[in-house]
Predict the 3D structure of the following.
Amino acid sequence: MGAVASLAWAGGATAAVARGDAVAWPDGVTLLDGTAWVPRPGHAQVIVRWATWCGFCRRHNAHLNALLRSLPPGAPLQVLGVAADRDPDGVRRHVAAEGYSFPVTLDTAGFAALSSRRVIPLTITVDRQGRLREIIPGEMAEADVMALAALAT
């Protein structure tokens, strides 16, 4: 059941990554607010690829907000939203209207290459050791998203 991912970051490097393999993050992930996003050492990551026009994504991202609110301050878990849209202003308006509390970037670093599945939302989990845990296609139930808190332990 080794979910295989193909990493093709903006730098042009391409490599196959399977569950349990170390994840090589893209260089230069810029958030909608202009700041840089970097994975923190010792932190798990939940990356979700979504789109503003996707109702499944809207519910899924609301669950991610609930997950973040449930975590104690300083919990070693990062959430990054990767919008499939091309209009940064439209994404900013959507993020503000929905009240997303996680940072968001546009998919200019090639996160879509993590899976051959063209499904959104697409949730990618990386453990605290920087290893790919899962690539989960489709909307997750609230209880399943909340269970992602275990990545921080």
Residues 122 and 148 are 14 Å apart (CA to CA).
